[in-house]
Each structure stands twice: as C-alpha cells, then as structure tokens.
Amino acid sequence: MMGAGDIKQFQWRWQQSKYVEAVLYAVGFGGFVYLLTNQVLYGIIVLLVTVAVAVLILRPWRITVDNAVGYIDAHLPEAGYSSGLLLLASGELSNLSKLQQYRVSEQLEPILPKLRPPHKLFRAALVMFAMVLVGIAGRWALQGMGDSAELDKSNKESISFEPKDSLLNTAAIPTLTRTMITIQYPGYTGQGTLRTTDPNLRAVQGSTIIWDLEFDGGVQDVKMDLMGEPIAFTNSGQGHRLKMDLGASGFYSFVFTDREGHEHVSDLYSLEMVTDEPPLVQIEGLDNYSYFEFDQDKRMVFNTDISDDFGIADAYIIATVSKGSGESVKFREEKVAFDASIGKGSRILQLKQALDLDELKMDPGDELYFYVEALDQRTPSANVARSETFFAVIRDTITDPFAVEGNLGVDLMPDYFRSQRQLIIDTEKLLAERPDITDKEFNSRSNELGFDQKQLRLKYGQFMGDETELQAAPGQVSSNQEGNDGHSGEDAEEDLLDGYSHKHDSDNEHNLVEEHDHGNEDQEEEEDPLHDYLHNHSDPEESTLFEKSLKAKLRDALNIMWEAELYLRLFEPEKSLPYQYQALDIIQEIKNSARIYVHRIGFDPPPIKEENRLSGDIEKITNYSKNETYAYQGSFASARKVVSRLEILIDGNSSFSNADQNLIRDAGNELAQRAVLEPLKYLKVLQGLRDLEKSVNRTTEKFTAVRKDLLSVLPSIKSNPMKNAGQKNEMDLLFLKELGVYEQ
Amino acid sequence: MNNSVVFLNQQWLWPVMLVGVLLWAVFVWKESSQRYRPRFWFKTVVAFLGMASLVMLVLKPSTWRESTLGKGIILTEGYRPSQLDSLRAMYKRIPLETYAKGKPLSILNGADSLFLLGHGLEDFDLWQLDEKAVAFMGGEEVSGWTAISTGNETMLGETLEVRAKYSGPEQGHWAVLADNGGNPLDSVPFEQIKEQEIILKAEPKASGRFVYHLLERDQEGTLSDEPIPVEIVEGKPLKVLMINTFPTFEAKYLKNFLTERGHEVLARTQLTKGKYKFEFYNGASNPIYGFTNENLASYDLLIIDVDSYIGLGDSSKNALEQAIKSNGLGVFIQPDEGLFQVSRDHLPFKFKRDVASEFGTGETGRNLHKYPFQFQSSVRKQDIGLDSLVVAAYVPMEKGKVGTTLLQNTYQLVLDGEQDLYARIWTQILKNTVSSWEGALQWKRITRYPRKDEPFDLEIRTSYEDMTLTTETGVSIPLLQDALIAQKWTARHYPRKTGWNQLQFALDSLVPVSFFVHADEALTSIDNYQTLKANRYRFGSENDFGVSVSAPKEELLPISPIWFYAVLLLSLGWLWLEPKLIS
Fold this sequence. Notes:
The complex is a heterodimer of chains A (about 750) and B (about 575). Helices cover about 45% and strands about 20% of the residues of chain A. Chain A is built from 20 helices and 23 strands. In chain A, strands 1, 4, 6, 7, 10, 11 and 12 form a 7-stranded mixed sheet that branches. In chain A, strands 14, 16, 17, 19, 20 and 21 form a 6-stranded mixed sheet that branches. The radius of gyration of chain A is 54 Å and the shape is elongated. Mean pLDDT of chain A is about 75; it is low at about 150-155, about 400-415, about 470-500, about 500-525 and about 540-545. With about 575 residues, chain B is of the alpha+beta class. Chain B folds into 5 domains: about 5-65 and about 555-580, no CATH class; about 70-140 and about 525-550; about 145-235, Sandwich (Immunoglobulin-like), CATH 2.60.40.2550; about 240-435, Rossmann fold (3-Layer(aba) Sandwich); about 440-515, Immunoglobulin-like. In chain B, about 25% of the residues lie in helices and about 35% in strands. Chain B has 11 helices and 36 strands. In chain B, the strands form 9 sheets. In chain B, strands 17-16-15-18-19-26-25-24 form an 8-stranded mixed sheet. Chain B has a 5-stranded mixed sheet with strand order 8-14-13-10-11, with no helix packed on it. In chain B, α1 (about 15-30) packs antiparallel against α2 (about 40-60) and α2 runs antiparallel to α11 (about 560-580). The chains are: A alpha+beta (about 750), B alpha+beta (about 575). Chains A and B meet through β22, α16, α19, β23 and α20 of A and β13, α4, β17, α9 and β27 of B. β23 of chain A pairs parallel with β27 of chain B, so a sheet runs across the interface.
C-alpha cells in the first residue's frame, strides 16, 4: 500500500534531476574555463556562478506535490487521474474515493518508482561534454602557440641548469625555484628599479645588479662565471644573492654545486653595459661668424637644443672676449647663464638666448668666441659636451690699424720687392703682352720693372756694404722696410724711419739666407736693437765669412743687375732678360754655396786604425751573459686544440673526458676576450662551447656545429719557422753528395 | 703425356669403380641361372659395357688438346652501348659477361680473345687477363674530378695546397675548398675547356687529422662533394745559434723575432777579442766559443754573419762542415756588403751584379731593400721565394743546407709596423734553410686512393730491421724488404673500414701510419679515370688483339659424354629387349 510518501519521493526525484542538470551545466562551464586558463580558482568560481544561475533558471523548488500529481496523472493511465487521492488521508475520503485510492495505490505501487520525472539531463550532459571538449581543444591550441614562446622562455626568460656530468641524471637535482634579478639604475638616471627574470641583461654603466636565486634542494654554493672569473654568491638563508656593479659588458653563466659535490651549469647569458652618452648640444639660428658694425644693434639671438639620454644637469655659455691684436691681445672669459632656467633632469631642452655684445663690454675691434657647454647627471663625473664655437666680431672703425709708432723700434712690414725670378716672369709677361698694349703702358711697365730691379740690386748691395747706393736712393722703400697689407712705401714717416732701421749695412750672411727664405727677421732685430747701428767689423763671424769668390760673385750679380735695369729703363726688356737670367743663376749659386759652407763646419774625426782598435787593454772586459725565457703560446692555442679534439669526438673514437671539459673552458675564456670587442661574431661559438659543458648537449650534431663556428672565427696562424718531419733516404743523400762533388 | 687420358674427377675413381664392379657382380649373380647358355656370356659383356660407360660418365675422362676457344666480351663500367651493339652484330652469339670488382670472370674459361668495353678492370683484377688476347675498346670519357692531390701532411702555419684536375668543367660552376667544418676557404671558377687544372690554397687553423671537402657548386647549391683527407702536424721549435762579430739591428730584430716565437736561441756577439756577450733564450745553455762536432750537434740552425763565417778557424770550419753534412745543420749567412766579395772557395754561392736595389712586393705595395746583386744559377742552388720573388737561396750539402738572402734592412718593416710581412719573409727563409727533422721512419702511400676491402700498398723507409706492422685490431701485416735498398719495405693491407685507419708498429717510438680510406661513393670519377689509365697502359689504346696470344695453347678438355650415353643406352636397350625376343 503506497501513500503520500511515494508521491513526495517522486517530487523529490524530480527536483533532484533539476539540480543535477544545473550541476552538469556548471561543471561544463567551469571545466571549460579551467582548461582554458589552467587556473583552478577561476574554474571553481565559474562553476559556482553557473550553478547559481542554472538553479535560478531551473528553479527546482518550484516543483510542488501538485506538479508531481499532475505529471503522474498525465503520464500513468493506471493512476486514473486519481493519484491526488493518495495524498489525502483515507479517513477524509468517501468510500468510493477510498476504493479508488486503494485501487490507484495498488496499481501505482509497482510502476511509480519506475516513472521518470521530466528532465533534460541528457542535454545537460551533452553540453557539459561539449564544453569540456572545446576547453581541451582550446587549451591544446593555446599550448601550440605558447610552445614557441615557451621555448624562447626557456632560453631567455628563465635560468635552467644542467648537470655537468652525465652520470648523475638519476640523482635528485636541486631545482631553481625562484629567480629574481634586480637592476638598480644609478640614481641620477631617474629610472626605477627593474625586476626581471630574464638573465640576459642590459643596463646603464654604474647600475647595481642583484641576482637572487632560490633552490629547493640542498645547494652547497652558487657561483657566477663571468668571463672565466668565478664570483661567489652569498647565502642569505633563504636564497643566494649576488650584488655587482656593472662595469663592463660580458657574458656570464651560473654554476652551483649540490650537496654531493656535483656541478651544474646554466646557459650563457649576456650582460650588456650601455654607456651614458654625453649630452648633444646644437646651436641653431646663427652663422659661425657674425660681424657687427659698431653702430648696429649688437644682439645675437640663437636657439640651443640640448638633449641627453638620462637628463641634463646644467648648461651655460662660455664666452671669450679678445681685445686688441698681436702682442697686446687680452682674453677675458665669462660664463653666461641662460635666461631660462634649466630644468634639472629634463632630457630635451630648447633654450632661446640672446647675447648682447654691449653687455659683454665689447668695443669695436673686439672679438667674441662662445660655445654652449652642457653637463649631464652622471656620477661621479658628469659627461660634458660642448657645441661648436661661434664667432662674433665688431668691426673696427679704423680702416688702417697699423701705425708705426715712435716707440716701436722696428717696423713689422713684410718685404716688398720682387725677387729676381719674379722679375723674369713679369718681364716675360710684359713681352708677351706687348702687341696688346699701348706703347705708353709698355714703357711705363718696363720702367716699373726697372725700378724693381734696382730695388733688388740695392738689397743685395747691402750685403756688400754698398752704403752709398742705399743713400743714393732716398725716398725709396728700403729693403728691410716691411709694409703691411699693401700699405708700404706711402708714408713720409717711413722715410724718416729709413735712416734708423737700415742705414747701416749688415754683413750678416745669416741674414742673407734668412731673408731670402723667410723674409722674417723681426725677432732677431728686436733682440739686438743696437745691431743696426753698429759696424761690427770686429766680429769674425760676421765680417769675414764670405769667401773672396763669393763676394766677387755677388759683385758680378750686382753688375749684371745694373745692366738688366739699364735695358728695362730703356724700354728694351727683351735685351734685359738675358742679364736677368744670369743674375738669377749667380744668386742661386751664392745661396747654394752658403749652404755648403754651413755643411762644412761639421767635425771630421781622424780615421781609426783597425789594427789598433782591438789591441787595447781588455783585461777588465769580461764575458756577459743574459738568460731569458719567453713563454710562447700561439694565438687561440686551446681553441685550436678543441677543433682537433672535436674531430676525434665526432668520429666517435673517443668519449668526452674531464680534460676536454677543461680544454673547452680554456678555449671559451680565450674567445671571450675577443668576444667583448665583437660580441656578434663570437656569441654563437661561445654559446656552443658553453653548451658542451653540459652533458646532455654532447651530441655529434652539437660537436659539428661548434666545430664549424670555431673554424669560422679562428684567425690564421702567425708565421713561424718550424722544423717539419721530412724524408731523406740514402739514395737522396748519395745523389746530393755526388752533386756536391760534381760542383767542385 | 700429352695423349694420355686424365680423369677430371680423379678423386672419385676408386669408389665409382667399386660401385660399378659391385653393380656388375649383382647383375652377373642375378643372371647366373642362365650361366650355361651362351646368351649369359653375351649379356655379361653388354652389362659390363653399360656399367663401364656409366662409370665414365661420372669420372669424365679427358685429354690434352689444343684449345680452340672463341671470343668474348667483358663489359665494365662506362661502356658505350653502341659499341656493344656493333660488336654483337659482327659476332653472333658472342658470350658476354659483366665485370664485378673482385670477382673472377667465368667467361675466361670459354674465350681467349676478349673485347674489353668500358673503363676496364680494376688494377688488382688485371691478373685475370694474363695470357689472354684483349682488345681494349675504351669507354665513355670520364667527366668530373680526375685527380686530387695534397701532400702527405701539412705543417700547421703553412699553406695547404690542393691540386686537382677536372675533366669537362662547365662554365658557371665553381670548385670550392671547404674545411672540415664546411666553411669555404678558397674557390676557383670553372672555365669552358676540356680539362682544367685547379690549385686551391688554405691555411689550416688547427692540427690534427681532418677531412676537408672539395665541392663543385653552381648557383643553386652543391653538386658534388669529395673528401680530401689532410693531416696537419705541428712543427718543432728550432734550436738556433746566432754568431755575430758586432751587433746590428738586423741581427737584433731577427733574434727578437725568433725568441718571441718560442725558439731556443743562443746569441753570441763579440765584445772584444776573446770576450763575448752570450744571450740564452728559452732554455738555451752552454756558451759556445769554437765549433766542435759536439756543441753543434744539438742545433738546427746557425745564423752567422759574414765576418764570423770567414774568420772561422780550421777546426771550427771542419766541425761546421761536418755538422752540416752529417747532422743536417742549416746555416744561414747574414749578408752584408762583404758577402759579395767573398771568394768562391768560402761560399757555395755565386753572385752577379744587379741594377735593382729594391724588390716590389705585390700585395702591400711595399718595397724591400736588397743588395744590388743576384744569385747566379748553379746546379745545386735552390731558390727561396716570397710570392714568386727570389729573396733568398740555399744550397743543400748532403743532409744540411747553407742559405743566404739578398734582402737588407728588413728590420725597417718592424719599425714601420709591418710585423706580419717581416714574419712572413723570415719564416719563409729560415724554414727553407733548416733541414727537415728526420723521424726514425718514413712512409708513403703507393695506392693513392685507398678503399675498403681493396689492397692498399704502402712503402716504408726505415733503418730498423725487425719491426712488425699491425692493424688496429691487432692483425699483423707482413713487410717485404726491398732486395736492393735494405731500408725500403713494402706492405699490403686490406682496410676493413672507411675513414681514418691506423697501422701501428710494435715499437712505441715509431709514429703510427694513418691513412684515409674512401667510401665507395666518393671519388668515383677519379677511380674511373685511374682504371681507364691503368687499362690503357696495360692493353694499349689500339682496339685489336695483340699478336702475343696467337701461339697455340693446350688445354685439358673432357671427352664428350654423348658417346658414353650412347653405349649405355644401347646396352640397356639390348638387355631389355633380349628376354622379349627369346620369349
């Protein structure tokens, strides 16, 4: 006999199926999210949310007893639409009802537990599986994509260790659980601390780098191998730490020793140092040279662009004012600040600045040189950069700056007279132009040449002591009168000076040479102001050094010059030319003989007799002996050995030994020294060599690759004569012997 | 003897006879019931005949007869099919056999006049054609590498030179020499000619045994890759004695160069009469005053200036001469102006005046100062060249050498920062002046391209009398001493593996012989070319049979078994038919 309990049970079953449905959906979504994200937490959250949502939608609690009764009535004909009667107590029912209740209960008893409440469990399960499958597919796809990234990661972003010895793969290897690399940039850069796990580092010079490594197994000690130099980590209880200031670029790897004393090495990583560049200073809006008239507005406006990679500390203008000229020049240096304030630490500055020359107290004729200097914030010493130098000149109001002043004993005018060679050239030019010019002009130019010839003659005459001739040409520019920029010989004042400067002759042969070669004897003359006023015949150096022939030659030259001048004056330059040539020849000879003369004053030692040379007392002379040893090591000796060793390993005739390990390390160190200069060329081979230190990498393919790279970077052997093994057999020797006999 | 009968299966004679007699006895016993009738005797005789012919069928009696064999064709690799076709058209049903390396040719039993088509038989199989008339028809032209040669071994720091010949090169292709790692070292473009000679040079970077590669390349890639085994050995540093009467820059810089390169140098400079300055570098010891056989014995090279050389006393001079001739001392005379006036008796060189006082070196555009003299050519004089310039020369004197140079003031190069050129010049000069170091044993390959399971002949020269040569697996190889030259030995070895092989001597002090065995697929064109050459050499290039084989030859030929079959059949037939006739 069944009753209300069974109906209730049916209702409960109905509700239950709804809940299960909700859970199925939830598991589907939750699983999907979990699989995609690989995070359990997200999965659970999504699961719970989906359960809540699904339950809210499905509302299992809304299934009442009436619903159950209705469903039973509709689906079981046996219930005869009377299953509701079962809910009622039999006492409340009429007899007919009781009968019906009894009949229904009898009928339903075997079939009601078999009746399934309406459900969509199948659909829910399908959805769940679909979601999970999609999740798995998605995860797989993501992994596929991630793999390449992952590979990169293993190489770049995390440190992986391999045991050096292949035999201990079975032992528990301590693993690296945490890597943290902290780069503390120098304070002035204004860059924060950078934390990374990527062991390939790039940092500014002076940065502090801290490596924190934690291992989960027992690790005895951890070292960094920086270009062959081991640096130990300190054990801070939790992990291992190394702090280092970055001073140079290089390569490094980590080595740790586990409890059993086995070494494990990591890959090779790069440590790149970036130097702090000095600031870049550019001035715009200004020519290199600026000229101002004294009554002009003497302001210069220019733009300065300053840029630096880590910020500018200061910038200013260095202005140098030069006053006066020649001996009396005076310099004054001023440091001019920019009008705009310099923002300390800014990377780019654009400064507009006006320089007023009046403010710099410049007068006409003064010159200003200025440049902009900028400093960056680098510590301890800042990088300093400066711009190009710019010039500004206030033009002088005086057109002729030179004036021979009374107090200046010697004028500073350069020679103004034509040399014999010039005269010849001019004469020939005149002859060539004769058809094109008027007679008058021809005559006039010929006359001028004659005048020049005379001047030259007078000049040479000085050396002969031809005082009279000098005196005989008053009003003419004297030989040593030096004009400045074409202003010679025009002032009456200079004529007055004439008497003072070179009234007296000078037999100084030195002067002869010097004046021809340089025309610049001011200094000497200044040193000895009396010199010009003295007839220093007593000085043998001065008076008697000319040989007789030399004097005669000069006299000849002067005579010939006379002739040359004569014809020029007669407007017959063509007749004058041969004389001029003769004069030139003689002058050249005189010059040369003067040179020979200087040469001759050298000391000629008397010849030593050979037989006497070694016959002296040599008792005190003893044998001398010296002992030295040079350790000659060919370039890249270890690397070359590695090549031949690899060849044997590739052939498979031998296995990797401890000695190979050391050899490879030596080779790595040799190459690392070069690698600093050319990292690109060497990094691959260095990496290859480092890989060979790990047992897993000792494969033929790897050996072959390293061999190829090594051979491509190794330089040729330096020339060195060596003895080689040869073959010489008796027949050859007999032949050579006979050959020797034949030759004699 | 010639007419006698010989059984080919002589070894079975007695068992077969026995079985025959037994069979006959059984037959006689079976027929014994008729023994009183005449047909019994007749039958017995017939049965004997049958039995005897059966025995003869097995024993194969044969007689000596003049051979009358026909012609045959041997096909080897690279034959021309058209040639074969025309031969076949000419001689119907001519037997033919394709040659396989190392296998005996069976066609030789049936033919004694052979047409040899193709590149020919391998050198070591040629014996098979002894006493045969062979018309060598040749084959297709070999195209590809026809010769590749390198020295036995190259010293580290010297240039490795690979000389090769290529037959039928194609324009646009390149010959590339690559090192063992595959890095290209040198290349030569092919020209459109019949055969091109190619010289490729490289400077090996490490010592050891390597396999370089000679590649043929075009724009797309590598067409062929032939292995070039090279053995790079490290040289020994020198022991040098430098004798100077007075210090010169030239001597000083040369001394610095040698000492910095790790050579053992003893430099002696005269200070005054009987007093010297001795400089010992890198382990040199014991000052030397006068030369004796003993104190010169350990030196490889004597660098001596002209004055010291001329001023040598008689005993020193004799000792020096002895050291050169028997110990192989190298003497380098540092030249000065005086050298060219030294009389002929003192010096093995003759000079003649030369107007030029400079050499122009090609690459650097740098001129080298020289004395205004030239070497006069003589029989013994050997030039020492620097990029085809004769900068120095030496004269071999039995084991040793005497050399000198025309260059002067080479130290200027160092001062001008051209250390490399300086090093190159002096390395070239001194290397050639020093005699090679003589090992206790020298060897050379007779077989140029050894291959697996093919004979590899080598020649050994040594003064050791009792030595044994063993392979890596410990098998000893017999050595054959030359009858005339006691120091010369030959050996033959069949390598078991490709790649580098080694043969050891029982004496530890002797360096093992190592050689490279080529794989079958390597150097095929060279192999073909060599075979062709060997066959041409052997058979001549004329394609008819020589006269040598026309002489008759006698051969053992079996009596045709058909006769025995006939007798057997007749006797068996009679024995079967006879009872039926009677009944």
